[in-house]
């Protein structure tokens, strides 16, 4: 944790913007608190591990100790006068149509990058056929995930060994060992290798870009909400095929794991605004097949892999906002609550890695730049007038809310 100590020492006399003095102090104080709290948690974790080792040697018992989180999401909170102060981002479309649908906000500084988040993609049946088609998105990963070359120096073997392809190969080796039954006692079981393309896929339901691809039937096999919640909690981002999004959104959103970035994003498998002769030809073939023939229709279905990859890349890099349910409710009994109670928009503005050496001044600038972009988007597309904004704050999931400057100061800042 020597890096954390050096980071703290860099911020003794840092005032990044005199017009945003409150915001600067709040952001720097929050980052310092995260670093010091992480350092304390690491010490406690090491002590508990040592105590566990001593107890296990005597009692031969094993207890699981959870390590501290290495990455923390920082949220930008915008408090608004009431739900009636919100408007639809698109004319002639009611705000109720955006019920629990995340709206992507473009940011100058990326929240995350491809390869860091576990992505679940729920597609139309049959899932294994569409998994094979979605694996074409993997060819666009090369430019995004190549090891960086500094000073025109050649890529060493160590750089390639620590890259995403080596991690993929190691994961394959572990999965192959499990499939061979080397780690299980039941050696009589018949093991069937379902991998169709071992060059780009770990299992039949995953690709290099998507950690898991489920069909609708696979998701419906989960018997109760607890199994569904446990499954969804293992992923950072959830994507829905636009053809089954309306059907699945109601079922998925009944669980309590959908918060912030866990809100399902709807992905289109092709650009509807672009004319494509290949798609028209495929659609005519699908119509000639008639009813049934789901597998045959899926095998010839059209997917624009580049367009899908661009959507996924934008979701990972940027952040999103979800309108509170009270603003999208059509229940007449909620009308009084829409006009009397204040609401808050919670938007993730930055993700900080506590294990890496990060300059606090640089991180503060990134956070303030993102907050400015978020506020500009909300005022332009979602809030009727900036006068309805009561206050803005910044916080994490486990910290207190820190105050920010006025709306005009943030929007008119040079960030």
Summarize the structure.
Residues 149-163 have a biased composition (Polar residues). With 415 residues, the protein is an alpha/beta fold.
Features:
single chain, 415 residues, alpha/beta, four-stranded parallel beta sheet, 16 helices, Ribosomal protein L1
How would you describe this protein?
This protein has 415 residues and is of the alpha/beta class. 41% of the residues lie in helices and 13% in strands. It has helices at 2-9, 21-59, 127-134, 141-145, 157-161, 164-180, 216-220, 225-232, 245-252, 277-289, 294-299, 305-317, 325-328, 335-340, 360-381, 407-411, and strands at residues 71-80, 103-105, 119-123, 212-215, 237-241, 265-267, 319-321, 343-353, 389-395, 402-403. A 4-stranded antiparallel sheet has the order 8-1-9-10, with helices on one face. The two termini are 31 Å apart. The model is unreliable at 1-15, 146-165 and 174-203 (pLDDT under 50).
Question: What is the string of helix and strand elements?
Answer: HHEEEHHHHEHHEHEHHHEHHEHEEH
Q: What percent of residues are in strands? A: 5-15%
Largest sheet: 4 strands, antiparallel
**Strand neighbour order, sheet with most strands:** 8-1-9-10
Biased composition (Polar residues): 149-163
Protein name: Ribosomal protein L1
Organism: Hanseniaspora valbyensis NRRL Y-1626
Region (Disordered): 147-190
